[in-house]
Amino acid sequence: MRTNDTPSSAGVATTESASHRRAFIRPDVVPALGVLAATAVLIIGMKLVNPSFGSFDQLTAILVTAIFLVVASFGQGLVILIGGIDLSIGIVMGVGGMMIANLTRGSNDALIYALPVALVCCTAIGALNGIGIALAKLPPFIMTLSSATTFYGVALGLTAGGSQQSVAPALQDFMSSRWAGIPLPIIFMIVFVTAAILFQNRTAVGRKLYAMGSSPGSARVLGLPIVPLTIAVYAISGLCAGIAGILLAGYAASATLEMGNALLMPTIAAVVIGGARVTGGTGLYVGTLAGALFLSTLSTVITALSLSQGLRSVIQGGIIIMALLLQGQQSRARKP
Hints:
By secondary structure, the protein is an all-alpha fold. Helices cover about 75% and strands about 0% of the residues. The protein starts with a helix and ends with a helix.
């Protein structure tokens, strides 16, 4: 009897040990850790190919250029969390950048009113998306794509498509200055990421958004304010896109309406490869952050290898498809 009991006891102990190890890592954090590991592998692999790659200054530059995607992806992540999507982010970034350039006209004094005006307008575009989706019951894909097309046309008519004004020097200095040896954009990113994590995962509003995405029907039964929350989420997405556009204008010292278009798909990719389901209800901003850092590193590698923009788009699209396939396999594995 002792011989028969020993394997069973060992099996139970092994199972308990495995469960104890898994308890140290939340399942929803695993994708973020995997993406961060992939980022490290990408950097190491590129350094083997090109020893000059991966210097401290280059890694710092990657973090600075990642700020646009990190900020914009937060808004996209909240939208996807409730089961939606925001295809107007690229245009809103362009609108924000164009507004800050044309309102400041190279003057620091104008920033006092230019910043709030630009951010309010970008937030209003997001809120309009939310109103159309929550009240008019328009599909998010149609509503956000239509608003992007509409506001692109309005901005194109007002500006003729290009900004002839330079961005305020203070904004340019912010994107290039350092404090205690650390670039100011990285400090800003740390503050933003901390606030974003606390909002999404540590507040009552964040918990309500998870409930909305997990089961909209149950959320209604519980009496959650679906309409106000939906409008607020899209407004936040517009605000984040506006902030990213303003920072991008300061980084480039100028602005165009199309400057944010290249970041639209990466905002979706960062959220998806970070572990969020496109159907909503799951995902952490830590995962989105990891996805944004990975994509920014990948973009730098592609540029270092002198690959074409077309290949860059193919790679990003392939990453999204792979992430969706992995999510599908994991969902089927969890089913009894």
